[in-house]
Amino acid sequence: MSEVSTKAPDPMDIALGAAVRIRRRTIGMSQEALAEQCGVSFQQIQKYENGANRISFSRLVQISRALRCRVTDLMDVFDGADKETAEDLDLLTRMRTPGALELLTGFEKLPPDVRSSLVSLVRTLSNQQAAQAAKQAVPA
To answer: pLDDT tens digits, residue range 24-61?
Structure first.
C-alpha cells in the first residue's frame, strides 16, 4: 500500500513554478494553451505552477519554448547572492497569493499619488489586524 506524501513543496519548485505562471500570464496565455503546447493536461500545468510537481529539464525546455523565452529567463530567480535569492523566492511565493497578480496589474495603472494612498491604507489595515490578533492571543 502506498503512503500519501505530506511533504511540502520545495521552495525552489515553488519559485520556478511561480516564474512560469508570471511569464504565462504576462504574455496572456492560458494554462490550457500552455498545456496543449507541452502535451500535458492543464491540471499538470497547475501543479507545476504551484510547485506541487517538479518540472523536469526536458519539460522546462518545452515550457520555455511555448512561453517564447529562454530557460534561463525562467531561472533568473535563482541567480545572485543568497540574500537576493531569498528575497526573490519570497516575492514569487507571495505572488501565488490569490488575487496578487490582479492587484498588481491594477496598481500599476494607478497614478503615483493614488498608489501612495493605497499603500498607506493597506499598511494601516494590516497593522490594525496584527494588533487585534495580538490582543486576542494574550490571555486575560
So the answer is: 988 999 999 999 999 999 999 999 998 999 999 999 99
**Residue whose entry in the numeric block shows the C-alpha cell 496543449:** 36
The span from the CA of 94 to the CA of 89, in Å, is 9
The answer to whether 44 touches 35, Cβ cutoff 8 Å, is yes
Distance separating alpha carbons of residues 118 and 97, to the nearest angstrom: 19
pTM above 0.70, yes or no: no
Exposed, middle or buried, 132 (CB in 10 Å: 0-12/13-18/19+)?
Answer: exposed
On the CB side of 94, CA atoms within 13 Å amount to: 8
Q: Which CATH superfamily is domain 11-98 in?
A: lambda repressor-like DNA-binding domains (1.10.260.40)
- Report the candidate in 71, 65, 16 with the shortest Cα–Cα distance to residue 37: 65
